[in-house]
Amino acid sequence: MKILVINSGSSSLKYQLIDMQTESVLAKGVCERIGIANSNFVYKAKGHTLERQIDMPDHKVAVKLVLDTLTDKNIGVIASMDEIDGVGHRVVASGEAFKKPTLVTPEAMELMEEIKDLAPLHNPAAIVGVNACLAQMPHTPMVLVFDTGFHFTMPDYAYMYAVDYSHYEKYKIRRYGAHGTSHKFVAEEAAKYLGKDIEELKIITCHLGNGSSITAVKGGKCIDTSMGFTPLAGVPMGTRSGDIDFAAAEYIARKENMDISEMLTYLNKKCGMLGVSGVSSDFRDLTAAADSGNDRARLALDMFAYGVKKYIGAYAAVLNGVDAIVFTAGIGENDERIRSASLKDLDYLGIKLDADKNANYARGTIAELQTDDSAVKILVIPTNEELVIARETVKEAKLA
Ligand code: AMP
What we know:
Blueprint: E1 2-8, E2 13-19, E3 24-32, E4 40-45, E5 48-53, H1 59-70, E6 84-91, E7 102-103, H2 106-114, H3 123-136, E8 142-146, H4 156-159, H5 165-171, H6 180-194, E9 202-208, E10 212-218, E11 221-225, H7 246-255, H8 260-269, H9 272-277, H10 283-291, H11 295-319, E12 324-328, H12 329-334, H13 336-342, H14 355-359, E13 367-368, E14 377-380, H15 385-396
Parallel strand pairs: 1-6, 6-8, 9-12, 12-14
Antiparallel strand pairs: 1-2, 2-3, 3-4, 4-5, 7-8, 9-10, 10-11, 13-14
Helix pairs in contact: 1-3, 6-15, 7-8, 10-11, 11-13
This protein binds adenosine monophosphate (AMP).
């Protein structure tokens, strides 16, 4: 069985064709600059990479190009489109309209239209992506898989904001979280790796990348997560402020003559590591700058690690203990110094990182990095959000 996973952005479309028998990637790539001059098409399969500038005026053309390439006699990996059993679409925001992966139907797409403005940059793109795929594959089952889906098991006191309750009722203002597919994947992989029943585990998953979020997982279910109504909340990130006193944001807006939408752009794009350091949002640049004496780069990195540590402490409390801490995504998998700094002085919780194992972690593998006498397992697990989307597609479309 083969599942095509589609991740549509406003001007991009990432794709992966996954063989579900082996859970391996047959082909993957990206269409960039859709609807913009110099569109770029990347296709990787059978150890080869093809990159071409091809005009892609819209997502329909991009999807057709992907399908034509997947079925190409020379470089394709399938003989015909009929070999694609289902399509899984990544969707950023669900509101309370969708609490689980959902089959694409006219009714589901109507609901998608209604929640468009929950993620104005991302959700409209997902709708365009679904329609582009439906135009090419009208009879192939398709499933919407939401980044927020894993977080719907949070108790009400964890997801509610302390605002006028009628605003929750009217607008569904609450914590939704993000990176749900990643947190779910690494929590399940951690249980498998440890040879334990996930029902019996308390895990803190740290997805640390361009966007970062931390989740408390009890018995395989999310009970709290650091991102909020949108992915702006939680630890400071590449360009996002993370948690901030709203009154401080209002004060800056007043002084700098920003309106609310300018303020949101500022908090999402100009703050975080970039804003504090003035150097970059990328942790490699920040580390290099800090090492050559840039104190603001050092400060940004310290703030990030401190933020992660605070969430680990908070979630150890809400979980009533922790069996495993999992690091994943670009920073979690690659940045040994951030792992080390965010776990520093947590030995009273039984969390003890082995400095050598941490420094010698081989990228792309699953590894445990705790000392022999650490009560808590410390794991690095490469994430695989596409595989979760493909698995959910098989389940929801009843393809298995
Ligand atoms: P992601 O959003 O998961 O793709 O993560 C991207 C981020 O991971 C980049 O912006 C970098 O800050 C970080 N990153 C990637 N590779 C490394 C590395 N080798 N060392 C430190 N940080 C890295």
